[in-house]
TrEMBL record:
Superkingdom, natural source: Eukaryota
Keywords, alphabetical: Coiled coil, Endosome, Protein transport, Transport
A GO cellular-component term linked to this record: ESCRT I complex
Keyword match Amino-acid biosynthesis: no
GO terms classed as biological process: endosome to lysosome transport; protein transport
Coiled coil: 68-106
Compartments where found: Endosome
One Pfam family cited in the UniProt record for this chain: Vps23_core
PANTHER family registered for this protein in UniProt: TUMOR SUPPRESSOR PROTEIN 101 (PTHR23306:SF3), TUMOR SUSCEPTIBILITY GENE 101 PROTEIN-RELATED (PTHR23306)
Protein name (database record): Vps23 core domain protein
Length: 203
């Protein structure tokens, strides 16, 4: 029986991989810049410029709005102050007009009183000055009376000082009289303050 010889194995080789196509670059192999690359570069530069200008515009607008708000607040505060001043001026004007009317009334009253004081021959009649000047109410009359008595006490103290200076009275007499007058003056002033408080007048 014939034994077959083993067949020699045939070595198989794997084919080499196919190389990938080369990537395109902005510059061709000849060193020339392609038009589409120039266009992309210009668009990118324009986009950056527009973004920068837009940021500047937004920042400027924000600063202007802040300044406008501050100016508006100042104007509103000034407007409120002007309104208060106008109201105060109107109030003072009304008060001044009332004073003018009162002055005119008193002037007419004084003119009538002066006319009544003269007779047909133009001579003045004898008239008590205390009856010509009178207060509007009993409370105001009491204030006027105490005020006049307070001033009279000042005159008395001054006269006593002059008398002491001229040696017309002794020191003991001066002190005794000044003490009595000062006591009365204190009562007049205290009464006048109470009356002014009751009448709503400043003390």
């Amino acid at each position: 029986m014939n034994t077959p010889y083993p067949q020699p194995s045939v070595a198989t080789r794997t084919p080499p991989p196919i190389p990938a196509p080369p990537k395109t670059t902005s510059i061709s192999s000849t060193g020339t810049v392609q038009p589409e690359h120039i266009r992309a570069s210009i668009l990118s530069a324009l986009e950056d410029e527009l973004k920068m200008r837009l940021r500047e515009k937004i920042g400027t607008s924000h600063a202007e709005m802040t300044s406008i708000r501050e100016t508006q607040s100042e104007l509103q505060a000034g407007q409120r102050n002007l309104r208060r001043m106008i109201e105060e001026l109107e109030k003072q004007q009304k008060q001044l007009e009332s004073y003018i009317f009162a002055h005119q009334d008193k002037k007419e009253e004084l003119s009538r009183t002066l006319a009544e004081c003269g007779d047909d021959n133009g001579e003045s009649k004898t008239m008590d000055i205390d009856s010509a000047i009178d207060a509007a109410t009993p409370l105001h009359r009491q204030i006027l009376t105490n005020y006049s008595q307070d001033l009279a006490c000042d005159d008395v103290i001054y006269a006593l000082g002059q008398a002491l200076k001229e040696k017309k009275i002794s020191v003991q007499e001066y002190l005794r009289c000044v003490r009595d007058v000062s006591r009365k003056q204190f009562i007049f002033r205290a009464t006048m303050q109470k009356c002014r408080k009751a009448a709503g007048l400043p003390i």
